[in-house]
Amino acid sequence: MPQDRAALPPREEQDATTKRGIETSRKSHLFLTRGLMPFVWPADRPDLRKRVVIAAVLLVLAKLVTVMVPVFYKYATDALTENASGTSVITATNVAYGATALIIAYGVGRVLMVGLTQIRDVLFTAVGQHAVRSLNNRTFRHLHQLSLRFHLERRTGGLSRVIERATRAIELILRMGVLNLGPAILELIFLAGVLLYFFNVIYVIIIVATVALYIWFTLYATEWRITIRREMNDSDTEANTKAIDSLLNFETVKYFGNENMEANRFDESMARYERAAIQTYYSLGILNSGQSIIFTAGMTLCMVLAGQGVMNGTHTIGDFVMINALLIQLYMPLNFMGFVYRELRQGLVDLETMFSLLEQYPEITDKPGAAAMEVYEGRIKFEDVSFAYDPERPILKNLSFEVEPGSMVALVGPSGAGKSTISRILFRFYDIQSGDVLIDNQNIQDVTQESLRAQIGVVPQDTVLFNDTILYNIRYGSPSASDEEVYESAHLAQIESFIEQLPEGYRTMVGERGLKLSGGEKQRMAIARTILKAPPILMLDEATSALDSQTERDIQDALDQVSRGRTSLVIAHRLSTIVHADKILVLEKGVLVEEGTHSELMQKEGLYASLWQQQQKAEEARAELARTLEEAQRTGAIREGQYRLDDNTN
Q1: Which one of 234, 237, 384, 534 is most buried, by most CB atoms within 10 A?
Q2: What is the pLDDT of residue 30?
Q3: Is the fold of 377-447+537-606 the same as that of 462-534?
Q4: Does position 380 have pLDDT exceeding 60, yes or no?
């Protein structure tokens, strides 16, 4: 259905909106440029500031020499043509010597022009690379300070591509803006002075008008190209995100045979990128052609005036040659200025997202003057705690409980009861809406996050390891630990014998996200890492729920060792693993409905007893099925290994 014309804004309003958008974009880019200045002029690096000053001096000298080179060319040409024109007042020998000296000066000038520029670039390289390093390091640290909510919602592939493009943009902006745009403007000023001295104001007016028209056209065309560039960047980010996401989930893709679907999704994004890239090069051709036409027209007009001056006797052949050399020499930086402006604008577009990341404030911050947490006993207390990820869907509702020092308290309940949310709140990944969470009577919102998390060790349900060695991953619990301390923690976690059987032992690479190891091996490494950290408070987040029965028993023994003498909060899926807990808290829809020991809760015949009976029936059914399969294999009804019972069946 055609769109209602009455609903469309007037043409004037559309134009005004477009102008406001361009103005906002320019202000944003001015802000970004200012934001880069502390990295170019670092307050803590006087040696780099000294390099900037020396580079600026060399820049001015290089441009003075650059403008003087055509002047030497002019005088050499005049010296060589004086005798031929019959106007010479000096001997032919002196003319030859003078012309030779001017030609040599011309050659020396060209060498100095290049040499000074190269020395300047070399000096400034250290400044530029330091800026790249500093800004990337700041961004990396900032990303780690952002909230868990941000990282749960982010797209890893897109984020990595944004940082990659921004890194290139920083180098481009510094190289193009500082080392090329500034010198080009300076050369234009010097050139105007030379034209005014040797010719007259008409030439200056023509050149200024040409440059002004050239810059206007460049700005206008570049604004048009920026929209296309943004679309190309978005397509590139989207394609990279889909590729990374698909490769990270390689096994899932294979399980469902969706290779073609993934390839088609990726190709859709690449097709969009292809269209935008074609438009980008198409618009570049228009821009380059227009720039060439504008400058050639201005240069031709100046050459015509200079030629008439030679014929009228007001200018020499050297003047004609000089004006040609000056304008050709001007064309290079001016043409480069257009390229620089385009690259700067595109670089600033690439840099926008990185700066927008830096402008995101962490959801969880330390209070001003927050003290470090000190754990004396390890008492945990939740007092009337209410929390919701979304205001429309509350998770915890006025929850209160207490964990005595050195005791083990288990959290159980149906899926969605809020068990894992409690662990995230205890680590202060989120702040609660109301109530208090206390550790040894210290409110966790009044202490620093670093000191809080240093007091808590966690063995998660899904252990994700770094793509590094076993030694590195275990030592991650305490980076300053010695090799002997790592070996001891591995021994206590009952993983030492497994590691020693590996060809490279502790130097074995675990693969991306630890995919080369089994679930039990990863869990043992998580336990070893926690043992090495030696925290007074321990959080076990369904640490054995994804393991088979035998591995679960082995891991449970290791967990019992690591939790001995520590305050432990256990999120349990299998109730059989927490029957020995000092207290069991039963949650349902964010509310504490039951609490007590295993025997006490069984006597109540409430929710806990119901959950226990359901799991026991599932275990009995699994055991019966196992016996049936074993009998069928014994009698030959089925081949051995044809069917395998998943030990994780509940």
Answers
A1: 237
A2: 57
A3: yes
A4: yes
Contacts of 574 (CB under 8 A, 6+ apart): 544, 545, 552, 615, 650
SS3 call for 625: helix
214 CB-contact burial (10 Å; exposed 0-12 / middle 13-18 / buried 19+): buried
**Taking Cα atoms as reference points, which of 349, 351, 400, 386 lies closest to residue 585?**
400
Indicate the domain borders of the chain: 35-359, 377-447+537-606, 462-534
Express each pLDDT in 108-165 by its tens digit.
888 888 888 888 888 878 887 888 788 778 877 878 777 777 776 666 556 666 777 7
Phi-psi region of 441 (alpha: psi -120 to 50; beta: other; left: phi over 0): left
> Which superfamily, per CATH, for 35-359?
ABC transporter type 1, transmembrane domain (1.20.1560.10)
pLDDT value of position 78: 81
Name residues whose C-beta falls within 8 Å of residue 241's C-beta, 6 or more positions apart in sequence: 155, 156, 157, 158, 161
357: region left, alpha or beta (phi > 0 left; psi from -120 to 50 alpha): alpha
pLDDT at res. 403: 92
The answer, yes or no, to whether residue 72 has pLDDT greater than 60, is yes
Task: Give yes or no for residue 438 having a pLDDT over 90.
Answer: yes
Tally: H helices and E strands in the chain: 19, 10
CA–CA–CA angle 508, 514, 516 (5° rounding)? 65
**What is 377-447+537-606's CATH superfamily?**
P-loop containing nucleotide triphosphate hydrolases (3.40.50.300)
Neighbouring C-beta atoms of residue 251, cutoff 10 Å: 9
The predicted pLDDT at position 2 comes to 37
In this predicted structure, what is the pLDDT of residue 20?
38
**Region 365-386: what's the mean pLDDT?**
91
| C-alpha to C-alpha distance for 522 and 510, rounded to whole angstroms | 9
Q: What's the CATH superfamily of 462-534?
A: P-loop containing nucleotide triphosphate hydrolases (3.40.50.300)
Structure tokens at 474: 């275990």
Is the pTM higher than 0.85? The answer reads no
- The amino acid at residue 217 is F
Collect all residues with Cβ–Cβ distance below 8 Å to 199 and sequence separation of at least 6: 306, 309, 315, 319, 323
